[in-house]
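To: structure subgroup
Subject: Chain for Friday's discussion

All,

I'm putting the inputs and outputs inline so they're searchable in the archive.
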Amino acid sequence: MEPEPQRHTRAFRPQLPCETRPVISSIFGHQGGWDEALMVLVPIAIFVGLLLLANKRAKAIQAKRAQTDPVPEDPERPETSDS
């Protein structure tokens, strides 16, 4: 029985200079920090968006109430009865 010929998987990969291999592996291994930045920025962006939406809705409700409700009387002025 003959041994199987060894398959060379590196034959199809381009050979990089020795100096660039650690640099490339560290960039791909750490992702350059963009993934950590997203983990912080995405929740902040969600909260900012929700806050803007809530403020917009609150202002719309306040404007609607101002149009439909009568002007409240001055609390400093006592109520007078016409009796």
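Points worth raising on Friday:
Residues 32-67 form one domain.
The first helix runs from residue 20 to 30.

D.
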